[in-house]
Amino acid sequence: MFTSAIKEREGACGTRHRELHERYFGKTIRVYLGIAIFCVIFTWIYERFSYGESALCMRLMFLVPLIGGALTFFLIGRLPVGRIVSRIAYNLWNSGLAVIGSGCLIKGIIEISGRSTQYDHIYWICGELLLILSVIAMIARQLKKKV
User: What pTM was estimated for this model as a whole?
Assistant: First the structure.
């Protein structure tokens, strides 16, 4: 097979790459929307069986996958900056959101039970550190492409 046939099949300016990129981010967005819906249902059921107690952190837990996941990947997928998301940056971002979401859940459960703890700060610090490392990985990839 000649290289001209390969280029013709892919289309001009890498449209095949763009289609794969949009499909990849589209799947990620759908997964995060599903997680946000699960968080709302989980919070509703958990509070229903908690004798009228509620926790703000647990009620707002759905915002982590909604804003941090679905909205962020929607915006990244629409901007030309979307191609700088490497696998390591993607995994670090997802891990950071998972840690922050887990922190919201743990803090909510502890608040509903009527106790308190200082260990929930570890979740926020680790989650923010993973998000910062993800952004650094994206910047490093962009700088590597320019060189």
Answer: 0.81
